[in-house]
């Protein structure tokens, strides 16, 4: 048993220069301080070190930690990559194909920026949820939905990061509604609160394939985060296979070592046994979840390694 602390990052921004200070992310100065903290208490290891430990080829330091970055944001290239490169650290980046290669805005990001833009304009989440509830009442009969009150009773409960109203908006637009309906509502809300030009917005939000290739060539690691950022535990096997295969094609194009080892990072942390079969068929080496715990190499299933959130550490 070899303990490994895996840390998960998403938004890392210079909040002194952003148009959306309401995005819940880590400020660049806080990221630097957190790296100082982690380096003082851990040995930052590379993906290939973890793979070697999993294969029994070598061991990990007792204080090993792995840095992971989800969703391929532009700031991962502009801010995170230079900081890691200067410190001679490897980051493991997980890029969904459609945003990076095709400029498609993910629903999860629509939701984040709807909330942030509304807050920047002096609004509160109730303004968004009122429009959401109106859309649900309009769609209720045609989509065979439950009453709004039933959804609120199930989903409007705070967690360690968000208040009840914010969680309600996120859960309804991320998981509770049929995918086509929640996408349609998210697009309408984004146009109202943020921008009608999604392509331009996506071009600013995500890194490019060329930038990912450069990072990979300069010692960063890139693994799979699917193609469209689906909940992979809620789609049929043929979509699971297509999502994984499209991702592997992208990784090969940018030079990731998929023929020797590759890592799957589950969007939203969603997985099921069918997906694990798809990954095993394609010789996936490691899989990263959103379960909060220390990963125990050679004890945990290698395709179900837990991760801590950046908020679990001082910044």
From TrEMBL:
Keywords: Signal. InterPro entries: Glyco_hydro/deAcase_b/a-brl, NODB_dom, Polysacch_Deacetylase. Residues 209-282 form the NodB homology domain. Pfam families: Polysacc_deac_1 (PF01522). The keyword Acetylation does not apply. The keyword Manganese does not apply. Is involved in generating a small heat-stable compound (Nod), an acylated oligomer of N-acetylglucosamine, that stimulates mitosis in various plant protoplasts. Belongs to the polysaccharide deacetylase family. This is Chitooligosaccharide deacetylase. It comes from Pannonibacter anstelovis.
């Amino acid at each position: 048993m070899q303990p490994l602390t895996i840390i998960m990052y998403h938004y890392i921004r210079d909040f002194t220069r952003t148009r959306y200070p309401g995005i819940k992310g880590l400020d660049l100065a806080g990221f630097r301080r957190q790296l100082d903290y982690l380096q003082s208490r851990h040995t930052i290891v590379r993906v290939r070190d973890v793979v070697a430990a999993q294969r029994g080829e070598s061991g990990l330091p007792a204080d090993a930690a792995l840095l992971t970055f989800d969703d391929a944001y532009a700031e991962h290239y502009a801010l995170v990559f230079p900081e890691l490169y200067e410190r001679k650290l490897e980051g493991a980046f997980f890029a969904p194909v459609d945003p990076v290669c095709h400029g498609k805005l993910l629903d999860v990001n629509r939701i984040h920026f709807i909330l942030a833009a509304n807050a920047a304009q002096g609004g509160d989440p109730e303004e968004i949820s009122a429009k959401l509830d109106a859309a649900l009442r309009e769609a209720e009969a045609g989509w065979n939905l439950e009453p709004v009150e039933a959804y609120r009773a199930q989903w409007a409960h705070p967690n360690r990061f968000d208040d009840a109203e914010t969680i309600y908006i996120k859960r309804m637009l991320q998981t509770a509604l049929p995918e086509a309906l929640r996408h349609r509502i998210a697009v309408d809300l984004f146009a109202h609160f943020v921008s009608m030009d999604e392509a331009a917005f996506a071009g600013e939000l995500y890194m490019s394939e060329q930038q990912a290739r450069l990072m990979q060539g300069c010692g960063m690691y890139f693994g799979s985060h699917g193609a469209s950022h689906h909940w992979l535990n809620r789609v049929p096997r043929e979509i699971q296979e297509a999502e994984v295969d499209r991702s592997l094609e992208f990784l090969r194009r940018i030079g990731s070592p998929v023929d020797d080892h590759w890592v799957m990072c589950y969007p939203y942390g969603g997985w099921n046994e069918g997906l694990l079969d798809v990954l095993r068929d394609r010789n996936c080496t490691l899989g990263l979840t959103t379960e909060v715990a220390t990963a125990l190499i050679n004890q945990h299933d290698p395709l179900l390694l837990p991760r801590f959130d950046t908020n679990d550490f001082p910044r």
